[in-house]
Amino acid sequence: MKKFLLYFVLPLFFVGIISIFACYAIVTNYAKGRLYSDVQEIPEREFGLLLGTSPQSRVTRAKNYFFQYRIDAAVELYKARKIESILGRVDKK
Known about the structure:
48% helix, alpha+beta, 2 strands
């Protein structure tokens, strides 16, 4: 059992940890210069992609703020004329 732990589980654990840090470094590197906090800095585009989420939490049925913030951001970009149209996904459940 100790050999199994030493030769299989422990290396797998370290590979997992290294993979997590590698993914973090890759995403951080690619995101540089692509995150905006001011609407005026965002370049104009033909359309904006609005990713879907539920307006309510599935478990507690509480308001889902991810949904509200995404809708608010899309409206703000549209009103600032940074996007000409919004491409969104509708889920009819």
